[in-house]
Design goal:
By secondary structure, this protein is of the alpha/beta class. The protein contains 14 helices and 13 strands.
Length: 385
């Protein structure tokens, strides 16, 4: 069996355009993967012209050989997120095809699951924030859906420092959400790498007042590994990071320096399924929990759930699907995850467990469709009206 074609679909969305990959073989079998990169979706698709030589006429069953040749020959290795995202998308598509070929889920191809359901937390739920009181109203909707954990960034467009009024407002938002969800619901505070060390420390000390805050995510810029190590040493709140790191090489120093308690690799950024499993094993060997990042589209949700099933040190999985996906999601994919009491059952269909539908061509994005800016005022609305 040989790969004869590679198709891509850039799908419009109100907060981040998705890039879906489809590989097609000479006997008509296909596989799907995702290669969404924030603000670089058209660059990803255009890059296909440069890398088709590593894919077309290759055996999709020889995944490691295909990926190793591509990664090594690209020269920039893990310094090129556009290239790495495509590697992830194509590698996932190969495994999807293999799973379908043998009638097996991905997790069963890798030896079977260590759990039958995945604990998830809600993200993308704060999309209608016009007044500070709305944070409580939106948080209530999350709890009513059965979630036991939710994540949010209360810091507006903050960057570097927070003025006193901004700091006060951010702490008030956390207090409002806590007043609704109580101590029995986990609150995960997102920093988006906004702050310098002193501001992050000040925020972290305030977060210590809440017994249900499970982590402070990306409190400083992702390059500041020493800053995260300092915060981990002096704060009682666990530090989480890793979504912007690329391949297992980037995680090595993070683990060596005791910078984090929770690792958050993103399957697309890391270089695919095999690389995510490597990072999970590295984290486990360092007694570190793993909570994969997943803020992209539905294909990456299902692929990540398959890998969650395999990792002994999984803490929880990010879930955007119920709050930030468009109403027409059912037009483009044949299944969506169902959250029950804060958990999602494992995918059961062969491959990654989800397929694209013919109507997908009705939702192709164009160059005028923009992504939201995490550092602009009112970004938390994510373009929703």
């Amino acid at each position: 069996m040989k790969i004869v074609d590679l198709k891509s679909y850039i799908i419009k969305n109100t907060w981040k355009k998705w890039v879906f990959i489809e590989i097609i073989t000479d006997n008509g079998e296909n596989g799907y993967g995702e290669a969404t990169v924030y603000n670089s979706q058209f660059a990803v698709v255009n890059h296909i012209k440069d890398i088709k030589k590593f894919i077309v006429n290759k055996d999709p069953f020889k995944v490691r050989e295909l990926v190793n040749e591509w990664f090594t020959s690209s020269f920039n290795r893990n310094r090129d997120i556009v290239n790495m995202s495509l590697i992830s998308g194509v590698e996932s598509a190969c495994f999807d095809l293999i799973g379908k070929h043998f009638g097996s889920t991905i997790y069963n191809l890798f030896g079977g699951p260590v759990r039958n359901k995945i604990k998830v937390y809600a993200n993308g739920w704060y999309t209608n924030i016009n007044n500070i009181e709305d944070w409580g109203k939106e948080a209530r909707k999350v709890i009513n859906k059965g979630y036991k954990a939710l994540k949010f960034d209360p810091f507006g467009g903050g960057s570097g420092f927070l003025e006193y009024d901004e700091f006060k407002k951010s702490m008030e938002i956390i207090q409002i959400v806590h007043g609704v969800v109580g101590d029995n619901t986990e609150m995960l505070i997102e920093g988006h790498g906004r702050f310098n060390r002193s501001t992050a420390m000040k925020i972290g000390k305030e977060l210590e007042k809440y017994p249900n805050i499970e982590w402070f995510e990306e409190p400083v810029i992702p390059e500041d590994i020493d800053g995260m190590a300092m915060l981990s040493k002096f704060l009682k709140i666990p530090i989480a990071a890793g979504e912007r790191l690329i391949t297992s090489y980037d995680f090595t120093q993070l683990f060596k320096s005791n910078s984090i308690s929770i690792a958050q690799p993103d399957l697309i950024n890391t270089g695919g399924i095999i690389e995510l499993l490597k990072i999970g094993a590295m984290a486990e060997a360092n007694n570190i929990s793993i909570a994969p990042h997943q803020a992209e589209g539905p294909l990456n949700t299902f692929t990540t759930l398959n890998i969650d099933a395999l990792m002994n040190n999984l803490k929880i999985q990010e879930m955007f699907d119920e709050f930030a996906y468009p109403a027409w999601i059912g037009d483009i994919v044949d299944t969506v995850p169902e959250v029950k009491n804060g958990y999602v059952e494992l995918p059961e269909k062969p491959g990654i467990g989800i397929n694209l539908k013919d109507k997908i061509n009705n939702y192709i994005a164009d160059e005028n469709d923009t992504d939201f800016n995490l550092f602009s005022e009112g970004w938390e609305k994510r373009g929703f009206k």
